[in-house]
């Protein structure tokens, strides 16, 4: 391994115990991923839904509207996990980002284009016009961003590949686990967005919406979640087999600490398939729709934990003998946690009010 390419450990002491930063990293990344999956999966569903068929236009309108705020929240809630990456593994992560610097900076361009395309699509849909091509182009932008993120996250785990990537940046895509990991990420987003579409349709139907359109919307969402989950389970085993042999062996020997989250996550995926397969009329089987959404979120938490554990096995050799000093700054940590909890609470409050306080049609309501 070309250890000369690995930056020296930051001599500044950690402002708190390492375990705390790992917990906060996982927690904040989970919140960030909720919005990321909503944007990525929702845009893909909106692109594939088309305008024909009951509920298809409603799906496109739903996710184009949701993206108006979900994109911003995905970016905002991505700051905290990025800070914890910097604290714990900054010398690995930022080196990987520099090695594919043009792609990393290109994310900003893609994000800006996708963000503004969403508003163009929203404007056209409100005017009763078609926005299929625009939504499809928006989806391409977000899929490309996902590919860049997967590339950097894989590259920072493998310093042994940095020398080759420094000579030819495109070599970063040559990791055997890139494709299954990328597919796994995209399918998870589609499954979550499908469950969200079905859940929203059920809630709207309970408030007296158009049953035919909402039933079509819910069925499309359930079908998308079912297909995505089935493919994701298959792809998950491909991803495991694509891991480096030493990483996979160490992971399997990790005992209950590593195998329990993975095993329960796979079980949650199987249960999710069973629940989704049983839904024939989502508007009547509202409980099963809610249960499917809960299982998706639960499986996502377990897979995030598994992903975090795998990172330690990837970097075990590169971090061997690493000794960090700790000088707790409890005041700063308490302030951060207080502000973070407050922001999460305000976000939840705003989303609930936005969902409930729908103005009625007409000039007075406006």
Short description:
With 366 residues, this protein is mostly helical. The protein is built from twelve helices and no strands.
Task: Name the descriptors.
single chain; 366 residues; mainly alpha; Formate dehydrogenase/DMSO reductase fold; 76% helix; globular
Characterise this structure.
By secondary structure, the protein is an all-alpha fold. It has a single domain, classed as Formate dehydrogenase/DMSO reductase domain (Formate dehydrogenase/DMSO reductase fold, Up-down Bundle). The protein has 12 helices and no strands. Helix 1 packs antiparallel against helix 5 and helix 1 (18-49) crosses helix 11 (286-314). The longest helix is centred in the first third of the chain and has 32 residues, at 18-49. It starts with 17 loop residues before the first helix and ends in a 10-residue tail after the last helix.
Could you give the count of β-strands? 0
Helix-strand makeup class: mainly alpha
Q: What is the overall shape?
A: globular
| End-to-end Cα distance | 64 Å
Radius of gyration: 22 Å
Poorly predicted parts: none
CATH class category name: Mainly Alpha
Biggest sheet architecture: none
Classified in CATH, the superfamily is Formate dehydrogenase/DMSO reductase domain
What is the architecture at the second tier of CATH?
Answer: Up-down Bundle
Number of domains: 1
> Which percent band covers the strand fraction?
under 5%
Number of helices: 12
Mean pLDDT: 90
In sequence order, what are the helices and strands, one letter per element? HHHHHHHHHHHH
Level of helix content? over 70%
The CATH topology is: Formate dehydrogenase/DMSO reductase fold
């Amino acid at each position: 391994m070309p250890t000369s390419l690995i930056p020296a450990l930051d001599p500044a002491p950690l402002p708190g115990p390492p375990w705390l930063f790992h917990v906060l990293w996982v927690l904040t990344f989970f919140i960030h991923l909720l919005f990321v999956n909503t944007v990525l999966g929702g845009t893909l569903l909106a692109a594939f839904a088309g305008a024909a068929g009951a509920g298809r236009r409603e799906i496109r309108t739903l996710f184009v509207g949701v993206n108006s705020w979900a994109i911003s929240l995905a970016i905002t809630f991505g700051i905290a996990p990025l800070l914890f990456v910097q604290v714990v593994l900054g010398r690995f992560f930022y080196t990987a980002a520099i090695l594919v610097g043009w792609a990393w900076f290109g994310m900003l361009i893609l994000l800006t284009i996708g963000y503004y395309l969403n508003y163009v699509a929203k404007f056209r849909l409100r005017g009763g016009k078609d926005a299929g091509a625009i939504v499809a182009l928006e989806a391409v932008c977000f899929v490309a961003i996902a590919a860049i993120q997967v590339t950097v996250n894989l590259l920072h785990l493998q310093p042994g590949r940095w020398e080759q990537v420094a000579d030819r940046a495109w070599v970063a895509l040559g990791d055997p686990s890139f494709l299954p990991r990328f597919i796994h990420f995209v399918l998870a987003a589609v499954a979550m967005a499908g469950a969200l579409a079905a859940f929203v349709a059920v809630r709207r139907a309970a408030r007296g919406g158009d049953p035919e359109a909402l039933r079509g919307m819910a069925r499309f969402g359930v079908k998308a979640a079912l297909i995505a989950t089935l493919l994701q389970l298959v792809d998950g085993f491909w991803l495991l087999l694509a891991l480096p042999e030493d990483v996979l062996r160490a992971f399997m020997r990790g005992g209950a600490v590593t195998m329990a989250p993975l095993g329960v996550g796979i079980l949650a995926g199987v249960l999710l398939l069973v629940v989704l397969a049983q839904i024939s009329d989502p508007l009547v089987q509202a409980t099963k729709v809610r249960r499917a959404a809960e299982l998706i979120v639960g499986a996502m938490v377990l897979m995030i934990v598994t992903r975090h554990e795998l990172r330690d096995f990837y970097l075990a050799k590169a971090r061997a003998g690493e000794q960090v000093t700790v000088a707790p700054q409890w005041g700063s940590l308490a302030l951060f946690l207080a502000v973070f909890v407050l922001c999460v609470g305000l976000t939840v409050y705003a989303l609930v009010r936005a969902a409930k306080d729908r103005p009625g049609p007409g000039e007075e309501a406006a």
